[in-house]
Structure formats: C-alpha cells, structure tokens
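quick one before i forget lol
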Amino acid sequence: ARLVESGGGLVQPGGSLKLSCKVSGIDGSYTMEWYRQTPGLQREMVASISHFSDNIQYADSVKGRFTVSRDNGLKTLYLQMNNLKPEDTGLYLCKIQWYWGQGTQVTVSS
C-alpha cells in the first residue's frame, strides 16, 4: 500500500490550503484519517471520514474551519483548511488502517 500526501506549504494566518492524499494498493471499504504531528507532541487525529462519507469526525480545534472529503473513484482523501492559525502548523499525514503516508508540511506564519 502507498499513501502520498501533497498540498502543504507556507501560508499566512487566516489563509487556506487544501491537502490531498492519493492511495494505491488498498482495496475494499475503509475509513480514512488525517493526523497532525508537531515537534515534541504525539500525533493528533484531525479528521476522520468513513467509506461512504456518512460518518465524519473532527478534532475540536479544527471544527468549523477544516472540511474532510474523499473521492473513492480517484482513491483520494482531501482536507480543506480555512482560517488557518499558527497552531495548525505541523506535518499532516493520512492514515488508512495501519498504513501511513510520509506527510506534507503545513506552516502558518506571518
């Protein structure tokens, strides 16, 4: 299995980014998740979405600002991040079952 994230970068506070995670080598139905890792802290689950998008969950810190979605035909997971804050800075990784991507860095700074 392979998970490849993209879309990270440097953005000013209040800005937006859209992350993508392209999946290959995994078949069937599965929940997809976004995690965020910051130096010295454990990985924090940011958003989770079930196979048919009927069960979506967010960390309290991102509710109302982030939107998770997926395209099962393209085997791609997305994370639309709006009104970004400096505390959103971190390495964003996607996860399926026990598989992790390498992550894409998001830095929110003026």
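fyi The chain has no helices and eleven strands.
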